[in-house]
Write a structure and sequence with these properties.
Maf protein, seven-stranded mixed beta sheet
């Protein structure tokens, strides 16, 4: 049995897309970066922390299974682009990314009784130029508030994206290539049930 340690509807949709049945576990982990922590280490650590926290919840309930955790962040000029604190923060981030290429990193981890396996997806995303009025109007849609880098490529934010080099599903929040590899290593096949999931 697979459990997804995320309440993100985007991750639920992506996991269902590859036909893997699962239940959802809500976990609570500290998402603050460690001092001097590199972004690639940050997303992989958080993905593993979420998967391990989910596994501990299962054990407390006397259940067995594998737990999938994931974490996504942006990276620009060596700085982590976290979720925006407020409207001004979101506009600042969007203007910094305007007309430039940033990276999106998504760590994914699967934890079970045999241990934890972790992988990371890196994707280069190029934005067209954005002005402050448009960034503010985008904030007003409500979409950027809970998203790393203050945009969602699968939603209204797609209009900013000129090109990507890498994994589209990684930018959305769950890189399906890496996820399928980790699930296979844990003995969980894909395509069990097309488009269906529990939870």
């Amino acid at each position: 049995m697979l459990y997804l340690a995320s309440t993100s509807p985007r991750r639920r949709e992506l996991l269902a897309q590859i036909g893997v049945p699962f239940d959802v576990l809500a976990v609570d982990v500290n998402e603050d970066p460690l001092p001097g922590e590199l972004a690639v280490d940050y997303v992989q650590r958080l993905a593993a922390d979420k998967a391990i926290a989910g596994l501990q919840l299962l054990q407390q309930r006397g259940l067995e299974g594998a737990v999938l955790g994931a974490d996504t962040t942006g990276l620009l000029d060596g700085r982590i682009l976290a979720k925006p604190a407020d409207r001004d923060d979101a506009i600042r981030m969007l203007l910094e990314m305007s007309g430039r290429t940033h990276e999106v990193l998504t760590g994914v981890a699967v934890a079970n009784s045999a241990g934890v396996q972790v992988a990371c997806s890196r994707t280069a995303v190029t934005f067209r130029p954005i002005d402050a009025a448009e960034a503010g109007a985008y904030w007003d849609t409500g979409e950027p508030a809970d998203k790393a880098g203050a945009y969602g490529i699968q939603g209204f934010g797609a209009v900013f994206v000129e090109s990507i080099a890498g994994s589209y599903t990684g930018v959305v929040g769950l890189p399906l290539f890496e996820t399928a590899q980790l699930l296979r290593q844990a003995g969980i096949p894909v395509w069990q049930r097309a488009g269906a999931h529990k939870g």
